[in-house]
Amino acid sequence: MSLSFATTLRSVRATAIRDALDAAATPGKFLLYDGTQPATGAAITTETLIGTCVLSKPCGTVTDGVLSFAAIADDPVADATGTIGWARAVDGDDVFVMDMSCGVTGGTEVLLFNTLSAQAGGVIQILGGSIAEGNA
Fold first, then answer.
1. 73 lies in a domain?
2. Best CA proximity match to 113, nearest among 77, 72, 80, 76
3. How many domains is the chain partitioned into structurally?
4. pTM confidence score
5. Does residue 1 belong to any structural domain of this protein?
6. Domain range holding 63?
């Protein structure tokens, strides 16, 4: 099933995501995990937290139904060695917003890295990310 939305509706949906990430007084974050992504918002069980990257505030801009993330702070000291498999987005109060895919530059995933391999104590850098709503 495919959906095609009017540009105005796509932008409203993308703005709602941005506003949820920016809901707290402090910036939201991307929590980067290894392993398989659990059910949406489900408890973390066997997944290992590889690192945390803090969003800008506001976290991004919405144009024609696409939320493009503003600069995302590097994690200067990764928590664990491993392969980043997925990310959980939370607001500044650690309230769940969404889970998302991660990939390398040139891919179609939400968050893009130059490598998904991380070393404990090393730097993790997200090169960019965006969410396109509906047929944007």
1. yes
2. 72
3. 1
4. 0.94
5. no
6. 7-132
